[in-house]
Amino acid sequence: xPKYITNTSTEYTNLSSSVSSSNQKLVVQAETSAxxxxxxxxxxxxxxxxxxxxxxxxxxxxxxxLIGEFNNGPSPGGDLTYEAYGTTPNMKYFFRHDxxxxxxxTYQMRHGWDSGTNVKLHGHFIPMSDPAGAEVIVFSGTYxxxxxxxxxxxxxxxxxxxxxxxTHTVNxxxxxxxxxxxxADIPPSGARExxxxxxxxxxxxxxxxxxxxxxxPGAGTPAANLCGIGADVHYRVIKPGSEIEFPT
Length: 248
Hints:
mainly beta; single chain; 2 domains; 248 residues; 2% helix; globular; Jelly Rolls
């Protein structure tokens, strides 16, 4: 059975002093093994702790997703190709090997986010052609936090717009197999619950570094050989929501 611990218990006093406070009401629950603790604060924050040599060290919460779907960004080489996935009725955006394509995405952070932790941006893609040998896709992009009351620069030359890059190798036999590519581990930089993250993701198909040039067979545009499912953000959750509607 779980054990409920009062603020006079040894387990309570062994909580990190940086996260326990004498003026905050806490309910702390131990698992049957008494190796881990769960802390519930009056504000609804939920934290777990792991026993490390007799001292309970705060864990980082649990993961959740913010889903983003691709939309056309500023593409000097032409828009993303919007067409059916194969012969299915499912419509998707495709990045081409003969164009410089980009997609724009917007994420609003949830009120359950632990705003002191980084968020992780990554993309989900499907290669539509089967290369004879290993071929490389080259990605680049930028992100910027939009925080209430603060300037959002209109030029990516501003330091608030942070650049990232990534590559993925498509090997023979990878055709139609979804892959995930990590783009950026993003610090909050002053962002809070309900702040907005602006993202641009690009593929410069004609670049000599992007060697995934095998054409898509069958239905659709042959050069549109990379299906973009979407890009999502993983973030840490420690509470059901925030007490303040618009945290600052």
